[in-house]
UniProtKB/TrEMBL annotation:
Residues 1-20 are annotated as: Disordered. The keyword Metal-binding applies. Residues 104-246 form the Hemerythrin-like domain. InterPro entries: Hemerythrin-like (IPR012312), RIC_family (IPR019903). It is found in: Cytoplasm. This is Iron-sulfur cluster repair di-iron protein. It comes from Shewanella vaxholmensis. It holds the Pfam family Hemerythrin. Keywords: Cytoplasm, Iron, Metal-binding. The keyword Transmembrane helix does not apply. Signal peptide: none annotated.
Length: 251
């Protein structure tokens, strides 16, 4: 079942306005999305970062994004709360959630990242001399890919096996001490990816190709927008679902 379509102009219900506001606005974004993935769709509609920015209270996120919190709360109340594939992911045992992340999101990155590099480098060859933004754009695309590839390997070879061991009550020898250490490192790398994406947004007018853009240019921007959407879901699953549950097991 897909998320209920909501409008940014939706109004709050008249009853219980203040208490309802406080219930939502005091909560952290990551916790809200962890309870119901469809809230991620609402946050995306309003331009609120629910993955790397998941540790912020909703009130702070609205303030920083210059968004009327009443409209966000109305949209959250309107979102469907039961019955989706996303809910099922939240209920998976950790080893199965890891398998899903690897087979879905890690695989997606490995398939699409080389295409992004190829498209951006082709843009440089064809248009780099005439459009100043293309060369730095290609550099940031490469930086994104070069950050992500070793990141995936560290998760697959070091962190994820340790979390699997925790979930199955197995003792696994590690070189990093408490599970919180590699989790903190991965979260920091997620934040770095978020900063690179922010820079790419700035360079591309939010992945909007200019009127003179060639087909490769347009395909590259569209692929990058899709790539970012997948990364948001990917990072959300790790930051707001997998990692907190792993830390809970380690207590």
């Amino acid at each position: 079942m897909s998320a209920t379509s909501v409008s940014k102009d939706a109004q709050l219900p008249p009853h219980g306005l203040n208490s309802q506001h406080n219930h939502w606005l005091e909560r952290k974004i990551g916790e809200l999305v962890a309870e119901d993935f469809r809230r991620a769709h609402v946050f995306s509609q309003f331009g609120i970062d629910f993955c790397c920015g998941g540790g912020k209270p909703l009130s702070i996120a609205c303030e920083r994004a210059d968004i009327d919190p009443a409209k966000v709360v109305a949209a959250l109340n309107a979102a469907t709360l039961t019955g989706s594939k996303e809910d099922e992911l939240n209920q998976l045992p950790l080893d199965q959630l890891i398998e899903y992340i690897e087979s879905t999101h890690h695989q997606y990155v490995r398939e699409k990242a080389p295409l992004l590099v190829e498209y951006s480098e082709k843009m440089v060859r064809a248009h780099g001399e005439h459009y100043a933004e293309i060369v730095p754009f290609a550099g940031w695309v490469r930086a994104l890919v070069e950050d992500l590839m070793p990141h995936l390997m560290k998760e697959e070879k070091i962190l994820f096996p340790a979390i699997r061991g925790l979930s199955q009550a197995e003792h696994i020898e590690t070189c990093f001490g408490h599970i919180g250490n590699p989790i903190n490192a991965m979260q920091h790398e997620h934040e770095e990816v978020g900063l690179i994406l922010q820079k790419l947004h700035e360079l591309t007018n939010d992945f909007t190709p200019p009127e003179h853009a060639c087909t490769t240019w347009r395909v590259c921007y569209a692929t990058l927008a899709e790539f970012e959407a997948d990364l948001h879901q990917h990072i959300h699953l790790e930051n707001n679902i997998l990692f907190p549950k792993a830390l809970g097991l380690a207590q």
